[in-house]
Every structure is written in C-alpha cells, then in structure tokens.
Amino acid sequence: MLKKMNKTTKSNLITYGIVIAAFVIMQVLISTGSVSSLLEGLMVPLCIYVILAVSLNLVVGILGELSLGHAGFMCVGAFSSAFFSKCMRDVITVAPLRFFLALLIGIAVAAVFGIIIGIPVLRLKGDYLAIVTLAFGEIIKNLVNVLFIGKDSNGFHFSTKDVMGLNMEPDGTVLVSGPQGITGTPKDSTFLIGFILVLITLFIVMNLINSRDGRAIMSIRDNRIAAESVGINITKYKLMAFTISAALAGGAGVLYAHNLSTLTANTNNFGYNQSIMILVFVVLGGIGNIRGSIIAAVILTLLPELLRGLADYRMLIYAIVLIVMMLFNWAPKAIEWREKHLSFFRKKKEAVK
C-alpha cells in the first residue's frame, strides 16, 4: 500500500502519524499520573507554538518573505475571541459552542487584519517587509494597552484614557481595562482542542503546499520574474499565503486567550520577543520544513522548563541558535561543506539500496 503512494502523501502521513502518536503517548502518561503538573500545564502552550511555527513557515519558508508580525495576528485573535467569550459567558452557557464561535471570530478578525496589512506591506521585500510587520505587531500591542471598553444598560462604552473615561452607569461592567487586559475569560482550552487545531493547521498548510496554488506560491519564492512572465498573479498568491498564515496565528491566539484567566498584552507574550521566538522555531526546524517546525517548537518549548536554571538566558540561547542555523543554511562555505559531506552519505545510502 505504502509503495503505491506517492512521496508527498507518504511524507504527510508520517507527519500526521508523529503528531497523533505524540498526543496518544502524552494522554497515556497524563492519565497514569507519570507526568508532573508543570509538564501537563505545558501541553496547551505546546500546541499554540506548533500552530504558530507551522503557520509562519507558510510565509517564511513557502512564500520566502521575512515576516516579524506574527505575534500581532496572534494578539488580534486572542483579544477579539476573549472579548466575545466574556460578553457571551452568561448568554451561551454551552462551553464547546461558545469556544467554537470564539475560535471562528478570532480567526476571521486575524484574517481581515492579514488582508488589510498584507495589501500595502507585501509590495515590500526583505528587510523592509520585516521592519514594517514588526512595527505592525508593536502597534497592535500598544493599541490594546490603551483601550478601555465597558458595558451597561445603554450599551458599550469606549475610552483610550482610563476606566473613568467610560462614563458608565454604576451597574456597568468593565470588559477591557487597558494594560490590565481582559479578566475572567472562560478557560475553555484543553490539550484535546489544541491537538485538533494542530491537525487542522497541518491539513490546511500541507494541502496548500501540495496544491496548484502552493506551487504558484513557491514559484514566486524561487523566481518572481519568471513566475510573473508565465501569468501568475503575484499579489493574489502572496496575499493568500499571508492571510492564511495570519488566520492560523489568530486561531493560536484564541487557544492562548482561553488558557488563561487574565489576558494582557506585554512584550513577552505579544511583542517583539514572541515574534522572534516563533521565527527561531521556523529557522531551527528548517525553513520550508513543516515537520522540522513542529519538532523545533516542541523542543524549544520544553527545554526552558526542563532546564529552569537557564531560564534567564533563554533569549540569548535562541539568538545564538538562530545565528548558527542561518550560517549553516546560507553561508557559502557551509553550503559547500554540506554538499561535499552529506551528498557522500546520500550516494552511499542509494548504493546500498
């Protein structure tokens, strides 16, 4: 059966198999009490980072554009869904239905922001695109930190000053309180939901890569002028990849928001550090390598917790790893060494077959 399958289908099935096997093993370990509560608490964040790494790889690896605004799309999805869930907590009492609607809202809002940002930004290339997307992420974070929203019998009230600026009635409730964020979001995220979202993300991304549209996107990455000369709509396909990536990041944001009782926008969770960390997952796993992104996200999420003594040096370690991997992948001498040594092993392997 496996011999009849083409190489792509076989590779995709192996990726799904690895994810499903990892989930089953962890569930067995959790149910038997073999895993510490700390490690068990990391399961949902693990799913979040896998989704973020795979979705960013769509832009960085498949489209070939450097985007540093991924945390901004995650922030948009997180806050829009948390706002909906808090407003609907007493109206929709069925938790799975409420979470599903919040997920759709988070994904839709992030996709809309992806289109709005993508139309002007994707005309830029290289460092310029990276700078503008990074600025977008910081703007979103800072906007959330100055936004106050309240609700009373007269409806919603908005302010960018403070809670007093909402001018609500005494019985009104504050939904979003600036730097304090959103408190009281229902904790609907579970490891099972995270696992399902990881599978959905993999299905979307891997099917896109192996489709006609995916080949068009990769042709833009490989040679923009040649792609344009054969009638490929550059703007359309670049925007498609960017929007799908943003929507998936929004989904990860929804999962993140519903895993916490208090959601705030700071540098560590929705800022520059987060965007760089997601990029490290992609680079370490191999640019364009979906399975590699999953493995890198898992290892780099678990390592700081397993080596808690080095927690203060996490960003320094990430920076060193990023530089080493980029040198290994792109430096002419490193490419020459890889071709010389790795091709020798490949030829030896083929000879054995």
Task: Tell me what the structure shows.
With 353 residues, the chain is mainly alpha-helical. It has two domains: 1-37; 44-306, no CATH class. The protein has 15 helices and five strands. It has helices at 7-31, 37-41, 43-63, 70-88, 95-121, 126-145, 191-209, 212-222, 224-229, 234-257, 267-270, 272-285, 290-306, 314-330, 332-352; strands spanning 148-152, 155-159, 173-177, 182-183, 262-263. The longest helix has 27 residues, at 95-121. It starts with 6 loop residues before the first helix and ends with a helix.
Average pLDDT score: 84
Radius of gyration, in angstroms, nearest whole number: 22 Å
Tell me the structural class.
Answer: mainly alpha
Figure out the total of helices: 15
Number of domains: 2
Strand content: 5-15%
Ends distance? 20 Å
The ordered H/E elements are HHHHHHEEEEHHHHEHHHHH
Biggest β-sheet, characterized?
3 strands, antiparallel
* Principal-axes shape call: globular
The number of E-state strands comes to: 5
Major sheet: order of its strands? 2-1-3
| Helical fraction | over 70%
Unreliable spans = none
